[in-house]
Fold this protein.
Amino acid sequence: MQVDKNMGSVDFARLRLSEKEMLLLAEIGLNEIPTATDFVEFASENYAMSQSGIWYTLKKLKKEGVLDFTEKGEAYRPLALTEGGMKVLRASMTHAGVNCDVRRVAQISV
């Protein structure tokens, strides 16, 4: 998916997430883990996912404009949902019939 820098061309409410992507976004939305590297280790240990699969998903979500984090050679930015990421998470949870309480979504197992 191509994303404008101003993100005006992306309809975040219509972007569909897999259950894995929704789970990762929900965990990130809790703002408990400050870096992508720490998050990958956490998610791998707690959800039995491969680290390479988590990295792939994080980079895909960053490219789609729903996440922001520091990659090699960039100035430090904490791992966080973008404004668009919050819209995607809320829309996906609502579509799935889930109450928009991020802490409840974080309990989804993969």
